[in-house]
Design a protein that fits this description.
3 domains; 5 strands; DNA/RNA_pol_sf; nucleotidyltransferase
Length: about 210
């Protein structure tokens, strides 16, 4: 990327984590040139780019403002590291990039919860609730970042609904009303999400930004 930046007239950045990365260019033509050269470079090793992940989109303040001027057009989004990145406004009405849990990741996680609860619904309550609590805490630790709290709250609600559903299928007789279920959740102190990481407190010289 350092070689590419020297050839660019506008700003260019690479944001990476492990083998995932996002390239940002100020000018469209430089993004297109990089994309062509990247495909050629990868082709030399008999590799191919995943077309559903490798794409060029307009993104940022100017792209967002252009989309707002066109009522029939929405600003583009992209997924990276389990988050959907999208354009929005801060509380002070200024532009800012926001993040929310990727819909694909949320659906996969909920499906995994449903399958686990179905398979283990007859186990002891302490075992079930401990697993649910640990799973939620792990999810919060990763996804509770700036602007994503509403999505994480919605995820917790869906997990609670799945838990209610499968606890009521432990036997032929219904085990819980919503009132009794809420008392159970309080008894086991199932945690609620709160912001763990403020994106805008991070330093700009982090090692994954080149």
């Amino acid at each position: 990327m350092k070689v590419v930046k020297k050839q660019c007239q506008g700003q260019a950045y690479l944001v990476r984590y492990a083998d995932d990365f996002v390239c940002c260019f100020q000018y469209k033509q430089e993004a297109e040139r990089f994309y062509r050269e990247l495909k050629q470079r990868i082709g030399q090793f008999n590799w191919t780019l995943a077309e559903e992940k490798a794409r060029i989109i307009p993104f940022g303040r100017f792209a967002w403002e252009n989309a707002r001027q066109n009522e029939n057009r929405k600003s583009k989004t992209f997924d990276f590291l389990g988050f959907t990145h999208y354009c929005g406004r801060s509380k002070s009405e200024h532009f800012r990039v926001k993040r929310k849990s990727s819909r694909k990741k949320v659906c996969a996680k909920l499906k995994a919860h449903a399958q686990w609860l179905k398979a283990h619904r007859t186990k002891e309550m302490d075992f079930i609730m401990d697993r649910i609590k640990r799973s939620l805490i792990g999810y919060y630790n990763y996804y509770c970042v700036t602007d994503n709290l509403p999505t994480v709250n919605a995820f917790r609600l869906q997990v609670m609904r799945l838990l209610y559903k499968w606890l009521n299928r432990r036997s032929q007789k219904r085990s819980f009303t919503w009132e009794r279920f809420n008392l159970l959740v309080q008894r086991y102190t199932v945690p609620r999400p709160r912001v763990k990481v403020n994106i805008y407190d991070l330093r700009t010289d982090l090692s994954y930004i080149l």
